[in-house]
Amino acid sequence: MASFADLEPAEPELAARVLAAFDAHGHKVLATLRRDPRMALHSDSDEPADFTADAKVSGRAAEVTGEEVRARFAATAEVPADQPFELFHVELEQVVPTAVSDDRSALVISSWRPGRGVTRTERT
Questions:
Q1: Residue 118: helix, strand or coil by DSSP?
Q2: I want to staple 61 with a disulfide (CB 3.0 to 4.6 A). Which of 2, 35, 88, 105 is the partner?
Q3: Which ranges of 1-124 does DSSP label H, i.e. alpha helix?
Q4: CA quadruple 40, 121, 45, 4: dihedral, nearest 10
Q5: What's the farthest any 2 CA atoms get from each other in the chain?
Q6: Per-residue pLDDT of the chain (124 residues; tens, 9 = 90+)
């Protein structure tokens, strides 16, 4: 089981690029299947002419039911005491930042998987 906390010390530059892509826009897209723990979270992207980078994290979501963990999250996130919420932990299977090369001639796709490290592909 891997989390983003495992990625950050192993691949700090890649982790920073992924966080920047997710922080660049307010909207994200969550892809799930009903009654299936698989999920993918995609950052939003710029229009093609302005595109610089986006990112995707995928894995399996598991509901967090432990009251101590839920209470700690609620306090940190300032969730009102009377507001119900669902909380999930994601076991990462892949983290993919995608960017345009400096000369804008290729799409650069990096991929991190637990235990496998980073691969990089360029598409022209």
A1: strand
A2: 88
A3: 4-10, 12-23, 67-76
A4: 40
A5: 53
A6: 799 999 999 999 999 999 999 999 999 999 998 889 999 999 998 888 888 899 999 999 999 999 999 999 999 999 999 999 999 999 999 999 999 999 999 999 999 999 999 999 999 9
Phi, psi at 56, each rounded to 5°: -140, 140
Report whether 64 contacts 87 (CB < 8 A).
yes
Summarised one tens digit per residue, pLDDT across range 40-49 is 999 998 888 8
- Whether 79 and 85 have beta carbons less than 8 Å apart is answered as yes
What whole-number distance in Å separates Cα of residue 17 and Cα of residue 43? 12
- pTM of the full structure: 0.87
Distances in Å between the Cα of 91 and the Cα atoms of 24, 26, 97 are 24, 23, 18
How far apart are alpha carbons 63 and 119 in whole angstroms? 30
